[in-house]
Structure formats: structure tokens, C-alpha cells
Specification:
The structure holds two protein chains of two kinds. By secondary structure, chain A is an alpha+beta fold. Chain A is built from five helices and four strands. In chain A, strands 2-3-1-4 form a four-stranded antiparallel beta sheet. The termini of chain A are close together. Chain B is globular and about 75 Å long. In chain B, helix 2 packs antiparallel against helix 15. Chain B is 70% helix and 0% strand. Classes of the chains: A alpha+beta, B mainly alpha.
Chain lengths: 178, 466
């Protein structure tokens, strides 16, 4: 079934935000917003959950800490203990002070890289991907709201257009996609 | 939401719109490069190639071609390494620490400062690598199984901590920088007309489309990366200072080193940012975005960190006397009055006296004066490392082995060469990359744009129909 999509373009982020607020209050579902920069406060209006990437970063960081600890314990204590100036190295705890810098660095390394990779994969932004913004101007100075008719079955497209037009929109475009 | 105190000076001058910001940043990339760019690029390239030639000669012959001797086993190589790492501290400090403190003025400078960081850390990394002599065995610094050698690498050694610190710092700075670049590459991709640049920017922008959820993640990733990069910045130069501080050489064996090195790094990094920004804003007509206010803020950072460095110098002197260790005391007397007095005097003048001039508002707001001081500080910080390293080891416990360090032409060639390569990278960056964070600047336009700030309140409330 072909899907009807309405694109409403705005010149200003605040106008779009107020428009979105009004439309959502009327029961319209805003499927997506494309903008050249983050519009602060739009997420709760159009029902976007806060990202959980922060939790992932923590988990990656902990993984790094564990790998660094186990690795250094194996290298320096278990496999080949080195006598460095006669300092005690019978257990990991004896020598732990020397291991803190690398543990810290490796934690940061894993947290940052793990999160960055997850971020790119979750966004589907990887080298070679084709951009899907509806209009090239949305990376410059235009703000676009996308409405999918399948998600707004309570309204006819005429009703939708009338409601959208009352929100200070600058251009409206209708498209059909398979 | 977009309100800010009226007495705060605007960060974006003139009447800019969102589109105008895009225009201003993208225009120099889309236009033909000016002649001066080619001239500068050619000069940097020639110097860089000379440096690469010196490195090749060094690798082919061995590090005996450096001016080292049996007393002075570390000199220009480590001096240059620490100098470059120090310079590489400003970028991540600006983008990470200032992001955590919500300093909006960072946005005009963070992109190029981060680029500078990355290139400077590249240059820094060159020195330990070529110091290995057998560059192709460089991967031995990683913990590899025993059949690669008789032992694991030594995790008790600050030199190995350095390997982890520098490589983590470089790669984390790189992803921090690139994640910010992705949306701006998308802006360029949607603007450029010629097919090859379009294809290039399309690949570089990873198919960024600016969806609300993407921006939501973008903001969190920036914040968390800033959160982990902030302690990282401080840890990296602390670890660099451990290379010296954990040794037992008088003059190096000092607990003050970590904070003192970090302050010095921020000090020299900001000086380099000033040097580059003052030229770039003029050449690329970005005066509306990087103006006197930004320069003044950076000068205040230079003044504060310069004062910390000054206090550290004096503390070192005091402690060398107060400790009662005669070797320690001699190391410092020798530094100030021995054969390297001129290096010590340059360091003191450039790093302690010159930043104090920034207390005078007229001077710290003068662009020419700032440019001059930024060069002075860069020179001073090079001398600081030279003084710490060479003057501490050139007279050891055995007077018969006392010696002086004279750099060979290869020492000089490699150092000058890294400056050339650094500028090759930076000029390429300024030519093909958006030098200001376009997307981030647009977020502060309404609160910090000169035109928008001076609008009466009614203007804004008209668009708000609460």
C-alpha cells in the first residue's frame, strides 16, 4: 500500500516547536522532525524517548576497566612477574598503584569508542549511507515536520493540511512512497 | 529559553541568520583558494618534506645522528614531544571542559582547536616513534604474547602509561571531533554543486539526515564524550610528567610536576590557538564569529594558567632549597646561573612575565599584542621543556662526564619539519573542512547573536503563541 506523507517546512525552530505543540494537542502524530541543529525541547513534544546511550557508555567503560585489570594481573603478576627495584609484586593489590593510569586510560578508550560506534550504528550513519532528509535545505536553515497518514488515520489529508497551515508553515509538500 | 542577560556581550556580531552562518562558513570552502593559501601551503609542504627527509636519514642511519651524548641521552626529541603534546591540550580542553561548563564562546573556536589538537598530537607521536630507531618494530609497545620478545611490556613504567595515554587521547579526540563534524559535512553535502566534492562530502557525512532522534543522541554523545575527555585531558599531561617525575634525577624528581605540566600544556595550547585563530579569522573573514571578546576570554585563560606555571617555577626553586637536598639545590642553581642560564631566562621572561601583561584590559583586547604574546608563549614553553630536560641531566653526579648539548642539523630539521607537516595538515583542514561548527553556532544565534539580542522582547514573543 502506498503511504501518504506530508512534509511541512518552517523557517524558524520556535515556530515549528509551537506548531508541533498545537498539532499534537489536536491528536496529530508527528512522525519525524528534520532540522539543521538540535531543537531543544522538541523531543517530549513529538514523543521521542531520551536516548539510553549513556548507559551503554557506562557498560563499555566497566568492560574496559575489567579487561585492563585482568590483563595487567595476568601479564605482571601471574605470567611473568618482574622485579622492578625490588618492589612487592606478589599480588595484584601490592602493585595496584602502578596499574591505575593504564586502567583509567583503557576505561576511557572503551567507553568513548564503544559509545561512538553504537551511536553511529543506531543512527544508521555509517560511511556510504545515503542521506534521507526530504529537502537539502534542512541541513541549512529550514525545519521540516513529517506526518505519515498511516499514523494519523483519524484525519483525512485535507483536515491535516488545514490544521498544519494554521501553524505558520512556509511550505507544504505531499508525497507518496511505497 | 533563548534569553540571556542583556549585558553579556554578543558572541555573533552583526545581523546573521541561520542561512548566513552556513554561507559564511561554507563560502571559503566552495570558492577558489586565495593565492596566499597556495603560497603558505607550498612553504609548509617544502619544510614538511625536508623534515620527512631528515626522519628518513635518521631511520636509515640511527639516532646517533642526533646531537645526544652519553650524559645527555634525552634532549630535543623529548622536548619537542612534550611541546607538541602540550599544544595538543587546548583543543579538547576547549571542547570538553568548556562544554561541561556551558561556555558558549567555545563554539567559535572548538572545531579548529580540536583539529589543531589532533595534528599536534600526531606530531608529538612522531618523536617517541622515531626515537625507537627501528620504527617498524613500534608495535612492540603493545602488550603482545611472549613469542614477540622475552617479556611482556612493563606496566609499571610511565613510558608505557604514556603509550596508552597518548593513543587514547589521540583516538578519543579524533572521534569527538569527527562526531561534531558529521552534521556539518551534511550541510556541505547538501550545498555543493560539483559532483566530486558532493560525493566526497556525502561519504564523509555518513548519510546524516538531522532527524530529531539523531540530534537527541548527538547531544548526549557530545556530553558524555566531554565528560570522559575532561579527566583524559588532565591525565594525559600528568602521565607525560610522570616520565620525569618518577625518575630519580634531581630537577625531575618532583611531585609538583603533574599539575604544573597540565597548566603549562593549557597555557601553550591556548597560545597556539590564538596564533592560528587570529590569522584564520582574518583570512577566512570570520571576524563576526571570532572577535575581540573570544580573544579576551582566551587571554584570560592564558593569564591564569601562566600564573599557575609561574607559581610552580617559584615553588620548585623554594622546595629545592627547603628540601635540604644539595643535589636538588644544585640542579636549580645550575639551571638559573649555569651554562644554560639563557634558556632559563628566556623561559622565565616568556612564561612568567609576558602573561602578566594580560591584566591590562587594553592589552588583552589588542589583537596584535595577543598575536605577539602567543608567539612569545610558544617559544617560552619550548624553552621550559628544554630547561627541565637538558639542564637537569647535563651535569650529573660525576663531574668528569659533565657535558653540553648541541643540536645536530637533523635535530633541527626534524623539529622544523614537524612544524611544516603540522601546517600542511592545518591548511588542508582550513581549505576543505568547516572551520566553525555550523550546527552548534546556530543553536546559540538566538541567545548570543548581536541583532537577535538587541531586539525588543516583543519581537520574540510574537512568534510564541502561548
Amino acid at each position: 500500500m502506498a503511504e501518504q506523507i506530508i512534509y511541512a517546512m518552517y523557517d524558524d525552530d520556535d515556530v515549528l516547536k509551537d506548531g508541533a505543540k498545537k498539532l499534537v494537542a489536536k491528536g496529530i502524530k508527528v512522525s519525524e522532525v528534520f532540522s539543521p541543529f538540535p531543537i531543544h525541547g522538541i523531543d517530549p513534544i513529538i514523543g521521542i524517548q531520551n536516548t539510553r546511550l549513556g548507559i551503554m557508555a557506562f557498560l563499555y567503560g566497566i568492560t574496559g576497566t575489567i579487561i585492563a585489570t585482568l590483563g595487567m594481573r595476568y601479564f605482571m603478576i601471574v605470567d611473568w612477574p618482574m622485579n622492578i627495584g625490588g618492589k612487592p609484586n606478589f599480588t595484584y593489590l601490592d602493585n595496584i598503584l602502578a596499574f591505575i593510569p593504564v586502567t583509567f586510560e583503557f576505561t576511557v578508550l572503551c567507553a568513548a569508542h564503544g559509545m561512538a560506534i553504537t551511536y553511529l550504528l543506531r543512527n544508521k550513519t555509517i560511511p556510504g549511507m545515503i542521506a534521507s532528509n526530504p529537502d537539502p535545505r534542512t541541513t541549512d536553515d529550514k525545519f521540516v515536520m513529517e506526518f505519515r497518514m498511516s499514523e494519523n488515520s483519524k484525519f483525512t489529508s485535507e483536515e491535516m493540511l488545514d490544521l498544519i497551515k494554521s501553524t505558520g508553515v512556509s511550505e507544504i509538500d505531499q508525497k507518496e512512497v511505497k | 529559553m533563548h534569553k540571556e542577560s542583556a549585558i553579556r556581550e554578543p558572541l555573533i556580531l552583526g545581523h546573521k541568520t541561520y542561512h548566513q552562518i552556513t554561507e559564511d562558513v561554507c563560502k571559503p570552502i566552495e570558492d577558489k583558494a586565495p593565492k596566499t593559501w597556495y603560497v603558505l601551503f607550498a612553504i609548509a609542504l617544502i619544510i614538511g618534506i625536508y623534515g620527512v627527509g631528515c626522519i628518513m636519514y635518521l631511520l636509515g642511519t640511527g639516532i646517533g645522528v642526533w646531537g645526544l651524548n652519553k650524559t645527555i641521552g634525552w634532549a630535543w626529541d623529548i622536548t619537542n614531544f612534550v611541546w607538541w603534546v602540550g599544544i595538543g591540550h587546548a583543543g579538547t580542553l576547549i571542547s570538553a571542559v568548556l562544554l561541561l561548563f556551558r561556555q558558549k564562546w567555545r563554539m567559535a573556536i572548538n572545531r579548529s582547536a580540536e583539529a589543531m589538537t589532533i595534528f599536534a598530537v600526531f606530531m608529538a607521536g612522531t618523536f617517541p616513534l622515531i626515537h625507537m630507531g627501528r620504527l617498524w618494530l613500534g608495535y612492540w609497545v603493545f602488550p603482545l604474547p611472549n613469542q614477540f620478545g622475552s617479556l611482556w611490556v612493563n606496566f609499571n613504567s610511565p613510558l608505557l602509561w604514556d603509550v596508552f595515554a597518548i593513543s587514547t587521547y589521540l583516538s578519543v579526540s579524533l572521534i569527538f571531533w569527527y562526531i561534531g563534524l558529521v552534521p556539518d559535512f551534511a550541510t556541505l553535502r547538501d550545498r555543493v554543486k560539483r559532483p566530486i566534492p558532493k560525493k566526497m562530502y556525502s561519504i564523509l557525512s555518513f548519510g546524516w539526515s538531522g532527524r530529531a532522534k539523531n540530534w537527541n543522541r548527538f547531544e548526549l554523545v557530545s556530553l558524555v564524550l566531554a565528560g570522559v575527555a575532561t579527566p583524559l585531558v588532565f591525565s594525559v599531561h600528568s602521565i607525560v610528567s610522570f616520565d620525569f617525575a618518577t625518575s630519580v634525577i634531581p630537577g625531575w624528581h618532583t611531585t609538583i610536576f603533574p599539575p604544573y605540566f597540565v597548566a603549562g600544556a593549557v597555557f601553550s595550547g591556548f597560545a597556539m590557538v590564538q596564533t592560528l585563530m587570529l590569522v584564520m579569522r582574518k583570512a577566512m573573514r570570520l571576524e563576526a564569529y571570532i572577535h575581540t571578546r573570544h580573544v579576551e576570554y582566551m587571554n584570560i585563560v592564558i593569564m591564569v594558567t601562566g600564573s599557575i606555571v609561574g607559581v610552580a617555577y617559584l615553588t620548585e626553586l623554594f622546595v629545592s632549597w627547603y628540601s635540604g637536598v644539595e643535589y636538588e639545590a644544585y640542579a636549580f642553581i645550575n639551571r638559573a646561573t649555569g651554562p644554560y642560564w639563557w634558556a632559563y631566562a628566556s623561559m622565565m621572561t616568556c612564561n612568567v612575565i609576558s602573561p602578566q601583561l594580560m591584566w591590562i584590559p587594553a592589552l588583552r583586547r589588542s589583537l596584535y599584542f595577543t598575536f605577539f604574546i602567543s608567539i612569545v608563549v610558544n617559544i617560552g614553553m619550548w624553552f621550559e621543556r628544554y630547561v627541565i630536560i637538558v639542564s637537569s641531566i647535563h651535569r650529573d653526579y660525576l663531574p668528569s662526564s659533565w657535558s653540553m648539548h648541541f643540536p645536530s642539523h637533523i635535530d633541527i630539521g626534524v623539529y622544523i619539519g614537524t612544524i611544516g607537516i603540522f601546517f600542511v595538515f592545518f591548511l588542508l583542514f582550513a581549505r576543505f573542512f568547516p572551520v566553525l561548527p555550523i550546527a552548534e553556532l546556530k543553536t546559540i544565534l538566538k541567545s548570543s547573536g548581536e541583532y537577535q539580542k538587541n531586539q525588543p522582547d516583543t519581537h520574540h514573543d510574537n512568534s510564541h503563541n502561548h
